[in-house]
């Protein structure tokens, strides 16, 4: 029997891919336009199984631009070619190519009633880490699986950081701070009420459009008020985010809020540094059992230049591991997608600067609970 060759798909395979898609799926089919788009993204991989010019299967692997995650977006094997291990071969090739591209985790979704595929994934070492209801066109449930394909064991242990997703579009700062504080106090409440309380305490009132976001001064104060040690590292003096509003009255409000934060900080033992937090200082803080909350630009994640707060959970020679409180359910994201996100350290250095002309770098480091009365 002629050998099956695994290779990258080309635009000349489009007709065969569409035919295979219709053979394998009655719903949730990829369109010709979708296949063409994936073929045009250099970092993604569309691997096909070819026997003498006939396509017997494919595996589409998406590679995140900002993280070291890979995802099997779709896999199909022709009914005539099933039962001969072709699905496993496609998965193994997908893992190999993802590992060659320095991805450390492979993830995938599978229908909860697809017992054959689930058994294969488990046999290959995949573990279920989540469930996504109403995922398919017929409202079916997807099970989410993952397997680490590159391994790194950190030299030091870091305190585990619980995950808490923001429940509004404007409370990334409070949510990131809640995660940092909860890592140091397991009794800390993690709920929307506490999230909104912190937002009310830390908001800058105005920023961009819509509800105001939170700044490092306010977040440091919120941590201190809850009994934690806190320090703030800010590369700029003066009111932050002032250039994001055009109205002069709003600018004056930002100035007054900033003055209020500085006054309140002056009544505490919060350490205020007008310098950026270096990677070395951030790593030292983690080793000391402190948890950094960092302001980033989301450009590296989703091509949106929006200031966004995340929690740093761990670091090693290659990666900074983040809890990102924002979950985009419209894009199929779940809690598991935003925990311990591995970000290349070089990418993280770019992410941790907000703005173009004089980029802002801001961080709050949350330390252990202060002694009673401190």
TrEMBL record:
CDD domains: NAT_SF (cd04301). Signal peptide: none annotated. InterPro entries: AcTrfase_RimI/Ard1, Acyl_CoA_acyltransferase, DUF3335, GNAT_dom. It comes from the Bacteria. Keywords: Transferase. Gene3D superfamilies: 3.40.630.30, Cysteine proteinases. Pfam families: Acetyltransf_1 (PF00583), DUF3335 (PF11814). Residues 4-150 form the N-acetyltransferase domain. One of its GO terms (molecular function) is N-acetyltransferase activity. Coiled coil: none annotated. This is Ribosomal-protein-alanine acetyltransferase. The lineage of its organism: Bacteria, Pseudomonadati, Pseudomonadota, Gammaproteobacteria, Pseudomonadales.
């Amino acid at each position: 029997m002629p050998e099956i060759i695994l290779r990258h798909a080309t635009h000349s395979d489009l007709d065969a891919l569409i035919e295979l898609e219709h053979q394998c799926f009655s719903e949730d089919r990829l369109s010709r336009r979708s296949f063409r788009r994936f073929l045009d993204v250099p970092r993604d991989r569309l691997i096909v199984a070819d026997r003498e010019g006939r396509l017997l299967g494919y595996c589409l692997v998406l590679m995140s631009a900002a993280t070291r995650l890979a995802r099997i977006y779709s896999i199909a094997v022709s009914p005539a070619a099933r039962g001969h291990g072709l699905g496993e071969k496609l998965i193994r090739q997908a893992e190999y190519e993802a590992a060659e591209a320095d991805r450390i985790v492979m993830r995938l979704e599978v229908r909860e009633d697809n017992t054959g595929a689930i058994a294969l994934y488990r046999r290959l070492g995949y573990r279920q880490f989540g469930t996504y209801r109403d995922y398919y066109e017929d409202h079916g449930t997807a099970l989410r699986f993952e397997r680490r394909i590159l391994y790194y064991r950190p030299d030091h242990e870091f305190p585990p950081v619980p995950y808490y997703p923001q429940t509004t579009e404007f409370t990334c700062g409070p949510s990131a701070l809640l995660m940092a504080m909860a890592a140091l106090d397991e009794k800390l409440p993690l709920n929307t009420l506490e999230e909104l309380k912190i937002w009310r305490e830390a908001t800058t009132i105005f920023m961009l459009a819509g509800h105001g976001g939170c700044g490092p001064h306010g977040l440091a104060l919120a941590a201190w008020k809850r009994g934690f040690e806190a320090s703030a590292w800010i590369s700029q003096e003066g009111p932050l985010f002032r250039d994001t509003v055009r109205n002069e009255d709003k600018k004056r409000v930002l100035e007054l809020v900033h003055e209020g934060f500085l006054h309140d900080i002056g009544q505490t033992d919060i350490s205020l540094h007008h310098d950026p937090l270096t990677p070395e200082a951030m790593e030292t803080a983690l080793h000391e059992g402190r948890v950094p909350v960092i302001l980033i630009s989301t450009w590296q994640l989703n091509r949106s230049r929006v200031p966004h707060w995340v929690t740093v959970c761990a670091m090693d020679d290659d990666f900074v591991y983040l809890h990102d409180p924002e979950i985009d359910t419209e894009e199929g994201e779940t809690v598991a997608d935003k925990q311990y996100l591995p970000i290349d350290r070089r990418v993280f250095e770019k992410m941790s600067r907000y703005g173009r002309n004089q980029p802002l770098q801001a961080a709050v480091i949350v330390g252990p609970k202060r002694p009673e009365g401190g």
